[in-house]
Design a protein that fits this description.
Chain A: It holds the Pfam family HTH_20. Chain A: It comes from Planomonospora parontospora. The complex is a heterodimer of chains A (118) and B (169). Chain A has 118 residues and is mainly alpha-helical. Chain A contains 5 helices and 2 strands; from the N terminus they run ααααββα. In chain A, β1 and β2 form a beta hairpin. In chain B, α1 crosses α2. The longest helix of chain B has 15 residues. The chains are: A mainly alpha (118), B alpha+beta (169). At the A-B interface, α1 and α5 of A face β1, β2, α1, α2 and α3 of B.
């Protein structure tokens, strides 16, 4: 996955309003008016966030000239999540080894770290 | 006390906008032990790495200005080296260190690790700032992709091993 696409995805997700918009769109398409309703924000304010989401490829707009409904584009979101998940699972595996080690050190008493196992 | 294996809470990884990365993980141990496990070579060698990767070089001069160097060897014999210098060493609560991976053309990462203890458990928060987006992304890609084929088999193996080690010996 290209670095600039990932970066656009993470930057888009860094804002709570944009995350809330994505959460709303997970339930289905919505117009700008519908999206703006739960927020204390003007439609132009919401439109600005939508443009960021569109540039990141996370949201697309319908062709209906009147309503231009917004819909969630899940693919880049999934790629970003999968990509972080790979890193996470590698280190989680390493930390599980550390869990086991800490368990041994703890059960062997506070001086366990001083003693070397062969 | 019955030696029951206690696990910490799962790792979370968050990419900050730009070049940062934040890792959080809780360990079921006091921070003195966790700090030792992160800074003493004889302990680091026992846990650092996964999926066939393990430390073959682990040098830690734990003092401000002191150098550290790790070399990990992977399942196919590939090696990955990284190292840096400690800026702050405040045992057992805080470490600040630079990090440079072999092959980076320029720049270094700044890594801050904080250990907070509550009720005998230790929450680790590691914040890494990489010199560029490309470098952060390359760190995120390696070494997981190199050993990805055997990843899940090995995870299952580790879980079984951990369960067995949880029994009294």
């Amino acid at each position: 996955m290209a670095a600039d696409v990932l970066d656009a995805t993470f930057a888009a997700l860094a804002d709570p309003t944009r995350r809330a918009i994505l959460a709303r769109l997970m339930e289905g398409e919505a117009t700008v008016t519908e999206l703006a309703a739960p927020f204390a924000m003007s439609q132009p304010g919401i439109s600005k966030h939508l443009r960021v989401l569109e540039r990141a490829g996370l949201v697309s707009r319908g062709r209906d000239a009147q309503r231009r409904p917004c819909r969630l584009e899940a693919a880049p979101l999934k790629e970003a999540v999968d990509w972080l998940a790979g890193y996470r699972s590698y280190w989680e595996e390493s930390y599980q080894r550390l869990d086991a080690l800490l368990g041994e050190l703890g059960h062997d008493g506070p001086d366990a770290a001083e003693r070397e196992t062969p | 006390m019955t030696p029951r294996r206690e696990q910490g809470e799962g790792l979370t990884v968050r990419a900050l906008p730009g070049t940062g990365l934040v890792l959080t993980r809780t360990f079921a141990a006091p921070r003195r032990l966790v700090f030792d496990a992160f800074t003493r070579p004889e302990l680091l060698r026992r846990w650092h790495g996964a999926r066939g990767w393990h430390l073959v070089v682990c040098e830690v001069d734990l003092r401000p200005g002191g150098a550290w160097r790790f070399v990990s060897r992977g399942p196919d014999g590939a090696e990955m080296g990284l190292g840096g210098v400690f800026h702050e060493v405040d045992a057992p609560g805080r470490l600040v260190q630079s990090e440079v991976h072999d092959g980076w053309e320029e720049g270094e990462a700044l890594v801050t690790t904080v250990f907070d203890e509550r009720d005998g458990r230790t929450a680790m928060t590691t914040t890494a700032r990489y010199p560029s987006r490309e470098i952060r992304d390359s760190v995120l890609r390696t070494p997981m992709e190199r050993g990805a084929g055997e990843a899940y088999d090995r995870l299952a193996g580790v879980l079984t091993e951990m369960t067995m080690k949880g029994e009294p010996r």
